[in-house]
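Section 3.1: Structural characterization of target chains.
Under the original work plan, the team committed to producing a structural model for every single-chain target entering the pipeline before any wet-lab resources were allocated. The record below documents one such target. The sequence was received from the expression subgroup and is listed exactly as submitted; it comprises 105 residues.
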Amino acid sequence: MQSPHTVTGQRPAEHRRHTRVAASWPVTVRTADRLLHLQTLNLSPLGAKIGLDEPLEVGRAARLRLEPPGSRPVEVEAIVWRADDDGPAFFFLGILAPAGPAPAE
């Protein structure tokens, strides 16, 4: 049986409080048993869609290290909120301390 959060084919109209912005940033996804170096597809204040050809289990905990251009990396605790054909959508649970030094100018 398919998860109610798994989306295939056509999608219903979206009713969002926060707009998504298309963004291709490097992101490292760390789960209990995997370390993946990927790219974001889009971002919102509460989550991110990550490009991945294989599914991740809905509800799986992860730590994401987002690397916005020209800014410090940001680490967030997240869960897989939805599994779409083009990759998982993560819901941010909380921001962790800054992930490293600012990039050189």
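The chain has a mean pLDDT of 85.
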